[in-house]
Amino acid sequence: MRYRGMLPPVLAGLVSAVVGYASSFTVVLAGLRAVGATPAQAASGLLALCLAIAVTAIGLGLRYRMPISIAWSTPGAALLVATGHVPGGFPAAVGAFLVAAGLMVLAGLVPWLARAIAAIPRPIAGAMLAGVILSLCTAPVKAMVELPLLAAPVIVAWAVLFRFARQWAVPGALVAAVAAIAVHGSGGSLSGAALRPAAALTVPALNPSVVVSIAVPLFLVTMAAQNVPGMAVMATYGYTPPLRPLLVATGLASAAAAPFGGHAVNLAAITAALTAGPDTHPDPRRRWVATVALGAGQLTLGLGASLAMALVLLSPPLLVVAVAGLALLPALGSSLATAVTEPEGREAAVVTFVVTASGTTILGIGSAFWGLLAGGLTALLLHRRRRAAQPSPQPSDGPEPSHEAGDGAAEAEPVAARP
Description:
mainly alpha, two-stranded antiparallel ribbon, 17 helices, globular
């Protein structure tokens, strides 16, 4: 039969949708609320992102017959949390979302721009992401001190599942949080909440400082932490989709979602392995079905965006951020490793991390931009310093002296000149 064996990829796509949604929707809602969204606008943003993911994933899956997984930008949402309130409120943030989407489309249309983004040193990009999510990742510790009865079951559930079923660790922590709130009470109820999905249109406003604070870092962190790793994951399983059309597609989808509160969609980096791997289907040519199922699953989950917002409002804010922090711990570990593993560029990465993690706003521009700028300047300074430390070739009329003559030439080689 033609459709024989389609159940495994369909299930893989649905599992990927559930895991991706449950693992980070709290980060998305916290990020949108941090930059000024009302509960209705945040729920609308979550709905818009799910619809954008569904349309893009299904369209790309059918077009290229590859398991091209799409997700929202979780690091981008963490950036919004770190940025906090911006001049002009949520309309200015929506304007920045549109600019970031435009930059993504431009990267797909202009080859040199994509190459320029890829040329950003990996240690600096990793350090910027680590600085952005650090404050979120410390939230579980704070929650244990301030809300021990609520936080302890969440952390224990996360730790146990992380050991035995890693992909379900954050969804399990979320279930534990809901159970803890139900047992200990939160002083609220879902009875008066509007649970039907509703789109809320926000007229965008362009504010130069907000564009620099949100749009540029959002574009960079989405490229460095989502699109590039997403392509790498697919290549691991033997797929090489054309990057530029994918950037255009996700950029246009992000632009469509932005007026309704969605910040960005992109290639999936983590959940991509759930749809592109051999467990999805033994035949690589049939794994694209998982992407279509993922889109259908995201569409269904998006209809519950208002319910998700209502549950978040019932939870203590610190507990919501703690669940988000648990979801981002693996990202923090990998970004820190990227930042400091290689000795070359380590100092610039540390400068980037420190400035970004400080959360300092200068001239109305958030710390992510200043961290990237400070790291880039440090890398340029140290690069010139290392070049200056290299010995200049000395002219000689005769043959070069032999190191075997015992003249100490080998010991005189500057350390800075060695690779």
